[in-house]
Each structure stands twice: as structure tokens, then as C-alpha cells.
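Subgroup meeting minutes
Present: P.N., E.W., G.H.
Scribe: E.W.

1. P.N. recapped why we're keeping a running log of single-chain structure predictions: easier to compare across weeks, and new members can see raw inputs and outputs side by side.
2. G.H. added today's entry (475 aa).
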Amino acid sequence: MNTKTPPVYFDEMSDTGGIRAPYKRLDDWHRTMPSGIRNIKQHEAEALFRRIGITFAVYGEGGDPERLIPFDMFPRVFTFGEWRKLERGIKQRAQALNMFLSDVYDRGEIVKAGRIPADLVYRNEAFEIAVHGFRPPKSVFSHIVGIDLVRTGPDQFYVLEDNCRTPSGVSYMLENREIMMRMFPDLFVKNRIAPVDHYPNALKSTLASVAPQKCDHEPRVVVLTPGHFNSAYYEHTFLADMMGVELVEGQDLFVEGDFVYMKTTEGPKKVDVIYRRLDDAFIDPLCFRPDSMLGVPGLMSVYLSGGVTICSAPGAGVADDKAIYVYVPEMIRFYLGEEPILENVPTFQCGKADDRKYVLENLPELVVKEVHGSGGYGMLVGPKSSKSQIEAFRAKIEDNPGGYIAQPTLALSTCPTFVEEGIAPRHVDLRPYCLMGEKIELVPGGLTRVALTEGSLVVNSSQGGGVKDTWVMAE
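Output recorded in log:
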């Protein structure tokens, strides 16, 4: 018989005093909506997603890999005060991560000071020796920082992980809002909700602001995609279209002299800023993987000579490694002289003997992640796993301890979500997008991912999660 007390989850809509203030109008809205209308609206939302082409790809599971991402119509709401704290904490973290990248690709003062182990940085597979000693424009390495957050209480937020390379999902943030405004315009009349639709303009301005010094005209920005087989291809096309810039593949660009050019029907056009949505290894076959057919031969040579800016910079991935994550609070103290506004989740590093001993003794209670894993893959949620799954992970950790971290199973907050019977609480996380260029900018909102399966803590779309609109109430 299981006598364990089930965890208590913070319900973002209600507390002991009843419905929380930011949700009061939404409570009236869903209670007065007939179930038939709700079903019609849900089908309408799915039809809009399908017509627009909002899909994601999951390969290796058989069947059609292109899937419609599940959309939940019940918005998630933050008060202006809650958002102000998050905004300050996210900007602080994004700034410290960029200072860390500038440092470790230069003098490495944080390593010399003994605040972070040298092996974690310089032997990290994401560390690119090719850019050591190079300083990109405005000293910005990571231009779009996606910070994954979870909430555990009224004023308790934790950073789950950092995404400093090419964080995806912002197209869902924008399309979720667009679809909600189409389907429920009255909600936006009755509620003062901060807009997010200026994100594409802010992104374009951020990219243009880090054009190289050799650029003597209005910077030409392009989005570099691996192509239509990529799982986030819809987002690549969406962002290029919204910014009014060209979407290109590697074969559309070429290097001549000290610059990069785009092939067009009107002849070559010089490119100044490349928002790349492919991994470092594929950017330039002359510098990285020689078998890459996705990149541009000679691109890194132009980049290092200051002829083009690549966003985010090659090598930025060393800052979002899960082993490096443990040291981000220390980065904030070291570079900014401040205490972190947002806390990390307590983390055990399996490469350390004492931590590993604790993890192996408590696997059924912990969440274990691959240091280089993503998308909800390569992880163990102990309380939701079978004995055989736990034992399989035990063997993996013992075989490669440095490849794993472990964290306590957090009591993720829940948000009301539409189900067959009406609404029910489901676990959520949040990914806001911080833009780093000439200035630091954050649109008021982000991508809320929701674990649609009852009791599940895994919100990734590839693992059955969905998305919902995220509201920040205007002041």
C-alpha cells in the first residue's frame, strides 16, 4: 500500500481565498460558455493551425512525422507585478550568460578565479576553439536567449534550463495570441493584456543592431534554415516572413573575398547578419563538419574577419549545457556583483562522487537528464517511471556519470486546461524570449507549454504536450 502524501501543486487560478484576481473574468468566461460552443471553437482553432501550417516534426517513430501541435484555449495569466520580477530576473540571467561567453572565449577570468571548473568549459563538446579570441559585435554571443521557467508557488519561480543557441517556439507564442484574438475578441476588450505582436520587429532591430563594423549601409538580415526537413522549419519561414527578410539555405549563399553574398534574380546581394537556425557543426564545411551540405563554405573565415555577423554566435552553446547551468548563479555574482533574482533548481552533478552516490540511492524520487539532451528525450522522471526504467538509467549513470545531472521532482504549478468534462488542472512551464543586441529587450509573455496528460510533468510537444496563450496583464 502506498502511504506517501501526494505533492501539493500551486494552482495558478485559485487559492484558499477562491479565484485569484487575474483569473476572475476568465472564470466567468468559461462557466458561461456552452460546451457545444467550446467544441466548435476548439475545432476552429485546430483548423486555423492546420491552414496556417503550424506543425512540428517527430522523426523515428513511424507514420507521418508532421504533427499538429495541440492548442489549449484557456489562457495562462500573469499579473504585471509577477511579470516585472520575471523580466528583471531573465534580463539579469541573459546578461550574465553573455558575459560568461565573452569571458571564456577570451581571458577566462571566471575559470582562473576557480568559480567554474576548466574541464566543464574547455572540454565541453559545445566549446568552439575556432572562435577563441574573437569578440563579436557589441560583445554579444547569444542574441536570443530562451529561459525555461517553472512555478511552484505564488512568488516562487525556478529556472529549469537556459537556451542560448537557437531557442524555438516563439512562432507558437505569436500564433497562439493571434488565434485567441480571432476566436475571442471580447476577451481582449474586457481585459487589458500586454501585446506580443511587436516581437518580429524587435527581433529584426536586435539583429540589425549587431551588424559588423564593415557594414556601411542598412544591414541586410537573412534567416538561414537547414531546409524543410527540419522540425522547426515552419518557425523559420514564419519569422523570415514576419520580419520581411529572406529565408535562405546554405546553397543560396556564397563567399567572395571578405563578404557573404546571397544569390538573387537581380544578381548577388551582400548579407550582413545571418540569423542561423542550424547547429554549429553544419555552418561551414571548411571549419566544422566537412560532410555538411547545409552550410556555406568559407563562412567562418568571413565571420572571423568581421565581414558578417552570425546570430547566435558559433560556440554559444557552451553556456546552455546542463552541467554549466549549475554555475549560472555564480556567473551573476562574478560578473554583475548581484544576487540572482531567479533561482536554479537544486542540481546534483553525477560526475561528482558524493552527488552520484546520492542520486543512485534516490533515483525513484529524482528527475535525471542527459547533460546534452533536449526535447524531453534522454531523461528519467523517477516517480513516474517503472523499476526497469530506473534500473536502465542506473546503468547509464554508472557507465557515464559526467553525462548526467539530477534534480528533485518539482511540484510544477497547474493551470486550468480544457478537457472533456470542462476544465482541469494541468502542469505548465514557460519559455520567455530575451533579445540581446544594442539593448536587452523582452516582450511581455512567452511560450506556455502544458502537459495535457493528467499527472504528467513532461510538457514537450514531442512528448505529448501542448501550448496555450500567455497573458501579462497591463499595468
